[in-house]
Amino acid sequence: MNSAVGAYYYLRLVVVMYMQEGDDSMPLIPVTKYVAAALILTAGATIYLGVLPGHILGLATRGAQDLLR
Prior knowledge:
Blueprint: H1 2-18, H2 33-51, H3 54-68
């Protein structure tokens, strides 16, 4: 029963998001320079950790070893 309820919910969500006309009555909110800086910083950190995780993993391993001594 839960699977049927979940499937109904997500299918309704897909229909609302992709198959109905949007409502343009709400204006877009401009992004401040602080929010833009935070987005750029987090995107850069995510890309760095995804491409070169060795340095951070080494620090985490060393920290865990220090905790277990």
